[in-house]
Structure formats: C-alpha cells, structure tokens
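Meet today's protein:

…
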Amino acid sequence: MKPKSIVLILLTTIINFNLTVSQSSDFGIYKCKNNTSTNVFKQDITKSLTSLTGHVASHGGFYNSTASTRVTSTALCRGDIGPEECEKCVKTAIPSLLRNCPNHAEAAAWYSDCIVRFSHGEIVGVLDTWTFDKLYNSASVDKGEVSEFSEALSELTVKLTDLAANGGSVRKLGFGNVTVVGSGLVRTIYAMMQCTPDLSKEMCRKCLFNASEEIGKCCRGRVAARVFYPNCFLRYSNEHFYNDPPLISSSGEAKSGVLDTWTFDKLYNSASVDKGEVSEFSEALSELTVKLTALAANGGSVRKLGFGNVTVVGSGLVRTIYAMMQCTPDLSKEMCRKCLFNASEEIGKCCRGRVAARVFYPNCFLRYSNEHFYNDPPLISSSGEAKSGTDLYS
C-alpha cells in the first residue's frame, strides 16, 4: 500500500465527485417513544412545540420551551445556516412531528437543517441516547482507498469533536475538511459536528463519540453519511456543504467552532545551523514555542499574542532565537492553543535546523528567526488591556 498522505489544505481540482447525500431540507426522520392518549397532554405538547417558532434563530440557533411544567420542547438549527432557513426548518418540522408521532410522550424529528424534539421528562442539559438514525450514500471510494479515507475521516472527527465540545453556551459546533492524497487520487472530506449547547463539554464529547462510532460501523468507505442523535449530529461528504463562517450570530458571544484548518502555508530560510547544532537549536525553539503558545492562548478578547527570545550556547557559538506567535482574538483559549500547536508541529516537520521560518493558518501564525524582527512593546494599543505579548528571556 502506498504511504498515507493527509494534507489539511483545500486543493483545486478538475475532478468533480458528484456523489453526496441529498442536501434538500425537506427530508424528515422521526422517532417516537412512550404512548399517551391524554388530550390535555397532547395540548401541552402542541403548545410547547409551537412556542419554539420565531425564537430559535434569535437565540443563536437553539431554544427550549416548556408547557404546564409537563412537556419540554427543544429546537437546534444547524450552526452554519441563516435565520430564515433555521426558522423555516423548525416551522416545517413541528406539524410533521405532531402528525408522525400523534400519541407519544416523547419524540424527535431530524431534518437537514434542524432537530426538533419534545418529552414529558427533563431533556435540557441531559444527554439522550434512547434513539439515533443514519443516512449514507450508496457510493463508496475505491477498495484501495478505504483505509486512507477512513483514517483521514477519523482524525478529522476527533478534531471537530474537540472543537464542538469546547464551544460556549450558545453554540457547540465544529466543521472543517481534510484532503487525502493516495492511490493516484485527491479527495477532500468535509465534515460538520454539532451538539445542543445545553450539554456539558463531556456530554457533547460523548454524544459525538457515539456518532463517530456509528459512522465506523455503518459507513466505512462511503463518500457521504450522517448520524443523528437527539442531542447531536455528525455529517460528512465529499462535497462542500456548509457555510463558512456560520450565518447565524452567536448573540455577541465569541464564535465557537470556527478554528479553520482547511489550509496553511509556510516559508523558511534556505540557511541552516551547523549539523552539530541542530539538536540544541530545535530543542530550544520547541521550549520557546511552548511558552509563547501559553502566553498567546491566555491573552484577552483584544489580543492573543506571545513573543520573546531564547539564547542557545553550544558548539562554540551563541545563537539567539526570536519568535512570535499570535491567534485571532475571537478564538477560545483551547482553540488558540490548538492552532499554535498545529503551527509548531509544521515547523518541526518542514524546518528543523532552519535559521528562520514562518507558518500561517487562517486563525494564527508562528514566526521565528535568528534576527530580531518584532517591536517590543507592541505599537498598537490593546485598549487598556494587559499586554499578552512579553519578552520572556531578555
């Protein structure tokens, strides 16, 4: 088998893989539980569900409603769609759910753009695994590609699970893609994973882990598939299907699930340190980037920046390494840390022993050099905030 090559970069290709699960928003999957025939209870269900309309998009894509303390309903819209599509999906799902589950105390409906459910029990902040469903494309990758494709998808879902689980109280969403190069073909896998934001970090992680497991069981090598649980869903495809960035505002909250890893690039100096210095130089640079990552990640909502230098004494020479690492300040602490960790990993792969290099991601960058290149202190004020970039070693 040819060695695996997974590139987190969006490639332009003339190959059009027109094989994907339908992106129509009018399909519906329904699951019903616990029979009931009480008219009053049915009225409460209807009241609770209809109270959702008009409120979901304005609350960042998730809303819950309770009627007579006996029935709770929730609606979750896909985190990347616009307000109109969100409300349209919810309005479509409610009468269909009532029609398909007319005499039940608990039910869920999954559409392409939303999940709507109701229950006589407590469902807000509770991880529900009583039911799930799946859809998948009948088309598969070639037999020789299955292993590489599945491994790349697995690595992508692990990263997106982490993104979604670390989201805030308004949105728990992760999306991104990975490009698989192997067997003479280039395939890009796009994926989205989302939880209802009332779940805790661990509950969200568990729900998406379950969804990923189901994908492994049902859909190995399939070019597109979806798995739905009451609290979360996973969707992937060989076609781009999501809006980036999301179209619904998170009500002023820092956007979660928008750490972009779809592309990166690098530059490096052709000059290298002497062969005998490579180990010491690389170790010193690694220690410096660890400290600067922590500095940047702990920055505030105005600036996430870390810079500093370290001096390496070895092999009769003294070398100073200057470095700067920065994230877009909308990222959470963990997202910033992850972005800069990826950048540091790339430096280790491409540039071991190089005297200077840079790695760029959409949300962050890393730069180091054997020459001083940054202003200390920064020349742009952080609106009175404590500066997150300080010289560590001078």
In short: The chain has two domains: 1-263, 265-369. Residues 260 and 362 are 6 Å apart (CA to CA). The longest strand covers residues 172-182. The chain has six helices and 16 strands.
